[in-house]
Design brief:
The chain is an alpha/beta fold. It has a domain at 73-241: Vaccinia Virus protein VP39 (Rossmann fold, 3-Layer(aba) Sandwich), CATH 3.40.50.150. 40% of the residues lie in helices and 20% in strands. It has ten helices and seven strands. The chain has a seven-stranded mixed β-sheet, sandwiched between helices. β2, α5 (110-122) and β3 (128-132) form a beta-alpha-beta unit. The N and C termini lie far apart (46 Å).
């Protein structure tokens, strides 16, 4: 087990949250500490992330997940789905700051979903479910399709692929919050056809400033403006092989 310094963790985390102007409670700080300890102790078993150093986990996982909270308006939204959630970034971290909201965490790795279910139990969270499955399959199901206010993803797929994974989950008027790096402009250009086909449009692009993160970070916000044709998403693997 790594030598874990709680005081140092709390000081670092609180400093980052203050810099982002995100209010927090002592309970949320304690939950994130428990999250971190469990993540570190279980990481090798579940192959969650190559990022394990405390400062990097705080910056690249926790702060990077919640940075959007100081940038977006969250009126009349309650139901979220996080696609390709991995170890719960950003979905589970956002849930801790939005306890009254409902979250579904989706990942195709059963090991990661198992980790998340244990963590949800450990943190005694309600209104959050970790689900093993693929976006292409779940978005075809009646309970999932066009039923979410918000969808998030920090997945590595390019925007034209990611749009097909995420937009079908949204109700009309719902938004997708997609975390991207410096190549975002090229991706937006390549995704024009995909967005039109899926019934979405680019609403806004926001440059994010994550404390301690040197890399460029952007938030791409898509809005669903009309119904996604029933044929989308296509069957598993096809969106990635043949992007719209």
């Amino acid at each position: 087990m790594m030598n874990l310094n709680k005081d140092k963790f709390i000081t670092e985390l609180q400093g980052g949250l203050r810099e982002l102007n995100i209010s927090y409670s002592s309970e949320q700080i304690e939950q994130l500490w428990e999250y971190y300890v469990f993540f570190i102790n279980e990481n090798k078993k579940y192959n969650l992330s190559a990022i394990t150093e405390m400062k990097e986990v705080i910056t690249k996982h926790f702060l990077d997940s919640v940075v959007i909270l100081s940038q977006i308006e969250l009126k009349n939204v309650k139901r979220w789905v996080d696609i390709g959630t991995g170890a719960g970034f950003p979905g589970l971290v956002l849930k801790l700051f939005l306890p009254g909201h409902s979250f579904y965490l989706v990942d195709s790795s059963s090991k990661k979903v198992n980790f998340l279910n244990q963590l949800i139990y450990k943190l005694n969270l309600n209104g959050i479910n970790a689900v093993h499955g693929r976006a292409e399959d779940l978005a075809k199901e009646l309970d999932w399709r066009a039923s979410f206010d918000l969808v998030t993803s920090r997945a590595v797929a390019s925007l034209n692929v990611l749009a097909e994974y995420t937009v079908p989950f949204l109700r009309i008027g719902g938004s997708a919050f997609l975390y991207k790096g410096p190549e975002y402009l090229e991706e937006i250009d390549e995704a024009k056809n995909a967005l039109k086909t899926l019934g979405a449009e680019l609403k806004e692009t926001i440059e994010l400033d994550v404390p301690g993160l040197n890399a460029e970070r952007y938030l791409i916000i898509l809005e669903k403006i009309e119904k996604t044709p029933p044929k989308y998403p296509r069957r598993p693997g096809i969106p990635n092989k043949r992007p719209l």
